[in-house]
Amino acid sequence: MSIRGRLADQRGLIGKVLALVLVLVVVIGLVGAEGGSILFARFRLQRTADAAAATAATTFLDTRNAKRACQSALQAIHQRDSAGSLARCAVTPGGAVTLVVRKEAPTLVVQRVSWLRSLGIIDVTSTARPPPA
Questions:
Q1: Which pTM was predicted?
Q2: Domain coordinates of the chain in residue numbers?
Q3: Are the C-beta atoms of 82 and 107 separated by less than 8 Å?
Protein backbone atom coordinates (compact mmCIF):
# COMPACT_ATOMS: atom_id res chain seq x y z
CA MET A 1 0.00 0.00 0.00
CA SER A 2 1.31 3.45 -0.82
CA ILE A 3 1.92 6.24 1.70
CA ARG A 4 -1.12 8.10 0.40
CA GLY A 5 -3.25 5.00 0.91
CA ARG A 6 -2.03 4.52 4.46
CA LEU A 7 -2.77 8.14 5.39
CA ALA A 8 -6.26 7.90 3.91
CA ASP A 9 -7.04 4.66 5.78
CA GLN A 10 -9.26 5.48 8.75
CA ARG A 11 -9.97 1.96 9.99
CA GLY A 12 -9.79 1.81 13.79
CA LEU A 13 -9.97 5.55 14.25
CA ILE A 14 -13.36 5.42 16.02
CA GLY A 15 -12.05 2.77 18.44
CA LYS A 16 -9.01 4.87 19.32
CA VAL A 17 -11.07 8.02 19.87
CA LEU A 18 -13.59 6.08 21.96
CA ALA A 19 -10.81 4.60 24.11
CA LEU A 20 -9.31 8.05 24.64
CA VAL A 21 -12.68 9.55 25.62
CA LEU A 22 -13.33 6.65 28.00
CA VAL A 23 -9.96 7.14 29.72
CA LEU A 24 -10.62 10.89 30.05
CA VAL A 25 -14.06 10.27 31.57
CA VAL A 26 -12.61 7.83 34.11
CA VAL A 27 -9.79 10.24 35.08
CA ILE A 28 -12.17 13.20 35.44
CA GLY A 29 -14.57 11.07 37.50
CA LEU A 30 -11.78 9.86 39.76
CA VAL A 31 -10.48 13.38 40.34
CA GLY A 32 -14.01 14.55 41.13
CA ALA A 33 -14.63 11.69 43.56
CA GLU A 34 -11.31 12.23 45.34
CA GLY A 35 -11.87 15.98 45.60
CA GLY A 36 -15.42 15.47 46.84
CA SER A 37 -14.26 13.01 49.48
CA ILE A 38 -11.63 15.44 50.74
CA LEU A 39 -14.08 18.37 50.84
CA PHE A 40 -16.77 16.33 52.60
CA ALA A 41 -14.21 15.15 55.18
CA ARG A 42 -13.09 18.76 55.72
CA PHE A 43 -16.68 19.94 56.36
CA ARG A 44 -17.35 17.10 58.81
CA LEU A 45 -14.05 17.70 60.59
CA GLN A 46 -14.80 21.42 60.93
CA ARG A 47 -18.13 20.65 62.61
CA THR A 48 -16.34 18.19 64.90
CA ALA A 49 -13.68 20.78 65.81
CA ASP A 50 -16.32 23.44 66.50
CA ALA A 51 -18.24 21.12 68.83
CA ALA A 52 -15.05 20.01 70.60
CA ALA A 53 -13.89 23.60 71.10
CA ALA A 54 -17.26 24.55 72.58
CA THR A 55 -17.11 21.53 74.91
CA ALA A 56 -13.58 22.45 76.00
CA ALA A 57 -14.53 26.08 76.63
CA THR A 58 -17.44 24.99 78.81
CA THR A 59 -15.22 22.55 80.68
CA PHE A 60 -12.64 25.28 81.30
CA LEU A 61 -15.37 27.61 82.57
CA ASP A 62 -16.50 24.94 85.04
CA THR A 63 -13.08 23.70 86.20
CA ARG A 64 -10.56 26.47 85.37
CA ASN A 65 -8.23 23.61 84.36
CA ALA A 66 -6.70 23.85 80.86
CA LYS A 67 -5.55 20.22 80.87
CA ARG A 68 -9.07 18.98 81.61
CA ALA A 69 -10.47 21.27 78.94
CA CYS A 70 -8.12 19.75 76.35
CA GLN A 71 -8.98 16.24 77.53
CA SER A 72 -12.69 16.98 77.12
CA ALA A 73 -11.97 18.29 73.62
CA LEU A 74 -10.17 15.06 72.75
CA GLN A 75 -13.09 12.99 74.05
CA ALA A 76 -15.56 15.10 72.06
CA ILE A 77 -13.48 14.64 68.91
CA HIS A 78 -13.37 10.86 69.31
CA GLN A 79 -17.11 10.69 69.99
CA ARG A 80 -17.93 12.47 66.73
CA ASP A 81 -15.12 11.17 64.51
CA SER A 82 -12.94 8.26 65.60
CA ALA A 83 -10.36 9.04 62.88
CA GLY A 84 -9.84 12.62 64.04
CA SER A 85 -6.95 13.57 66.30
CA LEU A 86 -6.16 16.61 68.39
CA ALA A 87 -3.03 18.22 66.94
CA ARG A 88 -3.00 21.29 69.20
CA CYS A 89 -4.99 22.68 72.11
CA ALA A 90 -4.47 26.14 73.57
CA VAL A 91 -6.50 27.78 76.33
CA THR A 92 -6.23 31.47 77.12
CA PRO A 93 -6.64 32.76 80.71
CA GLY A 94 -9.98 34.23 79.62
CA GLY A 95 -11.20 30.77 78.66
CA ALA A 96 -11.01 30.93 74.86
CA VAL A 97 -10.04 27.51 73.51
CA THR A 98 -8.31 27.06 70.16
CA LEU A 99 -8.05 23.59 68.70
CA VAL A 100 -6.31 22.20 65.65
CA VAL A 101 -7.89 18.92 64.61
CA ARG A 102 -6.30 16.60 62.03
CA LYS A 103 -7.62 13.72 59.95
CA GLU A 104 -6.65 11.78 56.86
CA ALA A 105 -9.51 11.90 54.36
CA PRO A 106 -10.79 8.51 53.20
CA THR A 107 -9.87 8.42 49.50
CA LEU A 108 -9.30 5.79 46.86
CA VAL A 109 -6.02 7.00 45.39
CA VAL A 110 -4.67 9.98 47.34
CA GLN A 111 -4.00 8.07 50.57
CA ARG A 112 -2.21 5.28 48.67
CA VAL A 113 0.16 7.41 46.58
CA SER A 114 3.00 8.78 48.69
CA TRP A 115 3.51 12.02 46.76
CA LEU A 116 -0.24 12.78 46.91
CA ARG A 117 -0.79 11.78 50.55
CA SER A 118 -0.34 15.33 51.90
CA LEU A 119 -3.40 16.42 49.87
CA GLY A 120 -5.56 14.08 51.91
CA ILE A 121 -4.37 15.24 55.34
CA ILE A 122 -6.84 17.77 56.66
CA ASP A 123 -6.16 20.30 59.43
CA VAL A 124 -8.92 22.55 60.71
CA THR A 125 -8.80 25.20 63.42
CA SER A 126 -11.63 26.20 65.70
CA THR A 127 -11.83 28.71 68.53
CA ALA A 128 -14.62 28.91 71.07
CA ARG A 129 -15.21 31.16 74.03
CA PRO A 130 -17.03 30.04 77.15
CA PRO A 131 -20.72 30.86 77.24
CA PRO A 132 -21.64 33.97 79.24
CA ALA A 133 -22.23 33.24 82.90
A1: 0.81
A2: 3-128
A3: no
Residues with Cβ within 8 Å of 70's Cβ and at least 6 positions away in sequence, in order, are 56, 86, 89, 91, 97
Please say whether the dihedral angle defined by the alpha carbons of residues 27, 29, 32 and 36, taken in this order, is positive or negative. negative
- For 77-120, write each residue's pLDDT tens digit: 999 999 999 999 999 999 999 999 999 999 999 988 899 899 99
| Cα–Cα–Cα angle for 36, 111, 41, rounded to 5 degrees | 35
In this prediction, residue 73 carries a pLDDT of 97
Residue closest to 105 by CA, chosen among 30, 29, 46, 39: 39
CA dist., res. 32 & res. 39, Å (int): 10
